[in-house]
Amino acid sequence: QVQLVESGGGLVQPGGSLRLSCAASGSIFSISAMGWYRQAPGKQRELVADITSRGSTNYADSVKGRFTISRDNAKNTVYLQMNSLKPDDTAVYYCKLRIAFNDYWGQGTQVTVSS
User: Fold this and answer.
1) Alpha-carbon gap, residue 100 to 98, rounded angstroms
2) Which pairs from 8-13 meet CB under 8 Å and 24+ separation?
3) Rounded CA separation 104/3 (Å)
4) Contacts of 115 (CB under 8 A, 6+ apart)
5) pLDDT interval class at 28 (50, 70, 90)
6) Mean pLDDT, residues 52-73
7) Which of 14, 27, 28, 94 has most Cβ atoms within 10 angstroms of its Cβ?
8) Burial zone of 67 (CB within 10 Å; 0-12 exposed, 13-18 middle, 19+ buried)
9) Residue 45's pLDDT is what?
10) How far apart are CA 45 and CA 71, in angstroms?
């Protein structure tokens, strides 16, 4: 089995920064992609950013220039550096790993941006 453990969420003021981490463990063979998703209350879960095994990245338009996704292949860990946070960034953030044809999700971590 594969387990994903997220950390780094919390309460931050507008304009502040947070760094999310997601570490994978278990039966990991080859990771196709890692990504971050978020879901705000009453809204659909949406892709925030993802990164392929080759290092190619993709970002939602709403976070371009503010968020950066990165990974450490040796540690099977993906990060999301979030700068210039806005109240609209408030959501539960989930990491996802794609291995072969299967997707694995983290437990979610709350990010709240408020003054």
Assistant:
1) 6
2) 8/109, 9/93, 9/109, 9/110, 9/111, 10/110, 10/111, 10/112, 11/112, 11/114, 12/85, 12/111, 12/112, 12/113, 13/85, 13/113, 13/114, 13/115
3) 8
4) 13, 14
5) confident
6) 95
7) 94
8) buried
9) 97
10) 22
